[in-house]
Description:
Blueprint: H1 2-23, E1 27-32, E2 35-40, H2 41-92, H3 96-109, H4 114-126, H5 130-143, H6 148-162, H7 165-178, H8 183-196, H9 199-211, H10 218-234, H11 238-247, H12 256-268, H13 272-285, H14 289-297, H15 303-313, H16 321-333, H17 337-350, H18 354-366, H19 370-382
Amino acid sequence: MKLGIIVVLALILSAFTAHFLLSDPGSVAIDFHGYRVEMSVPVLVLLAVALVFSVWLIRKLILAPRRIGEAAGRYRAMRSGQKLTLGMIAVAEGDFARGEKMLARAASTSDSPLFNYLQAARAAHLQGRDDRRDEWLRLAYKETPEAANAVLLTQAEFQLDRGQHEQALATLRRLDENTKDHGRALILMGRLYYVLEDWRALGDLLPRIKKQGRTKSAAFDLWAIRVGRESLARAADAEVLAAAWNNVSKAYKSDIALLVTYFEALMRVGSHEKAEKELAAALRSDWQGPLICLFGQVQGADASKQLKRAEGWLKDHGEDPDLLLAAARLCLRNELWGKARSYLESVISLRPSPEAYHEYGSLLNQIGEVSAAADAFADGLGMVAAKPLPAIAHMKSDL
């Protein structure tokens, strides 16, 4: 539009100029250092136009190589982008070999080949070609050394996915040396330690992860609880156990798995009275089946008092199989065979379990009902066996 207006104005101006020049072309005289040049106005105009055109043409010729290079660069970038897109589409559609080839070709003409090489490495990884995968990662690092962390993280993720745990650990440690407390690297290292069941190393890592503000993930909670459980389970005496429990974050002390491990550890180191007291307190605030079962196993100082407390709970939880089983076990400790039998039969009628059948079989064998005891043991084993078990031979009573 603008060009059209300029052309029209130029034509009009030329028409008026030609009209006046034809009627009187005029003349121009130029004196310079004793030289005199005379010419008509039209000739001067033509010379001026020729000079301007010459300057414009020379400028174009000077700028031509650069503009040709820019145009070629734009074309290469366009072609590289097309190959990148086609390669990504091929990988997304499952044609990993073609996608890898397209991505690698695009890298050679790309202004920033890092992404191409990383995606080519992913395509090779999905094909199970770890040699080519590592080669693409090497090229990615070579082309963009400042992206070393990104390359190492990608390599570690691939190695973890392939189950190459030793290689992944070496990669992550190298990254940790390059950049201390890198958030993503710490998470991957935590995942690796969890898989390797290296609870001590994971426990040392958790404060660093927490420092990076990564505590909101479900994985962190899982790791923290497992580290706490392992620390409690390893406690050799009551003093070490108390220190391990104090090190557990308050946020996790209500976790049922952690509580069970803690109370089991208390019983293991002989702190039965402490376990009984704290179990009773925990059950008052949160009625949990696993804790009720443990209350029936803990050997408090006064077995009859412990049974009385359990039977007091039966007023409100009379149909709770866990409480009935706990009461039965406490009756066995108090040698109340008849009451124990009644509780165990109630448990089996409400919710049969291998534990209930085991206690029932032991009780029946204790009171001389050997045949019935064998049947109870067989029923309990049948609940955990892959195939039905043959009948167990009758056991002889010790009585």
